[in-house]
Structures are given as C-alpha cells and as structure tokens.
Amino acid sequence: MAQTPSAPNDAPSEAPSSGSSKGRPTPSRAEQEAARKRPLVPDTKEAKARAKADLAQQRDKARAGMAAGDDRYLTARDKGPQRRWVRDYVDAGWHLGEAVMPAMVLVIIMTFVPITALQYYSFMGLWLFIFLVIGDMVWTSIRVKRAAKAKWGDKVEKGLGWYAAMRSIQMKFLRLPKPQVKRGEHPK
C-alpha cells in the first residue's frame, strides 16, 4: 500500500503512537476513591450564600406569579378557571365584609371613651354589623353557586360558594391573588 509522505520527525514524541501508555502511572484504588470523595452537602459559605440567594429569587418569582394570578404559582385552592371566575365575580362587587376590620378598629377606639353607653352601643353595633356580614357572605355564596351552575352546568367544582364567601370578607387590597378586575366589571 502506498503511504502519504509525512513530515520529518526530528523530535521524539513523548507519547508513543500505539496508545498503550498514558505517560503516568496508574493510580491505586485508594487514590482514585480519595480523588472522588466530596461532601454530599457542600459546607462552604459561598455555597450556602448561593443557595440562599437562589431560594430567595425563587420565592420572589413565586410571590409575583401568585399576585398576578399565574396558574403555575397558585396554591391548589386557587387554581382553575372556575376559581378564577369566582375571584373576578367577588372582586367586581362591593361587600360588607371588607369593612369588618375598620369597624373593629373603630369599636376599639370607642372603648377608650369613658362613656359607658357609647361603649355598649358600639359593641352592639359591631355585633349587628357582623351578623349583616354573615348574611352578605351567605347571599354571595348563593349567588356564586347559581351563576356557576348557569355557566358550567353540572361540572361545577365543590366549594365555590365558600371560596367566594371567604374572599368577600377580605379587604380588596389585601386579597391574594390580587384582583384582576375593577369594581363593576362582572365576568360573563
């Protein structure tokens, strides 16, 4: 067979071309195991700081996603098109439950007034208001269940009424996921 001419080889090569030698001695088994040993959990301060920063970044991303109503970041309680519809339905209206916390603060302030009759009537007014809020929650629950049944028929998820009632007693700016509709923009 004809061979192509190769460049003159003036310097001897360090590794033979046959590939049988690697130019260093084979490490013993103990040396190989020692080289492979690493801690299962890195103990370095840098690794801990990096893990903490990564976790904080993931939490911030999840918090922003939940506030925006992104289904990937919502809890199981808030996921799904029916729950989104209920949130929009509740967020579009006014509810008495949104004023419970301010009413309680007002009653607490009234207890500092040294007039007993004023304290008594403020507590009675608060109890009356709480009963009205419970009535509003029941009415909201009934309305949501009826509207959901009209929209989805027999495929309505369980617990939509309770979900709507619990959302209705939260002040709008404190609700999570954040409201996606303005007041008066009822969903279809």
UniProtKB/TrEMBL annotation:
InterPro entries, per the entry: DUF3043
Pfam families registered for this protein in UniProt: DUF3043
UniProt keyword annotations, A-Z: Membrane, Transmembrane, Transmembrane helix
Segments of this protein annotated with the region Disordered: 1-68
Basic and acidic residues composition-biased segments: 43-68
Transmembrane segments: 92-115, 121-142
Protein name: DUF3043 domain-containing protein
Keyword Methyltransferase attributed: no
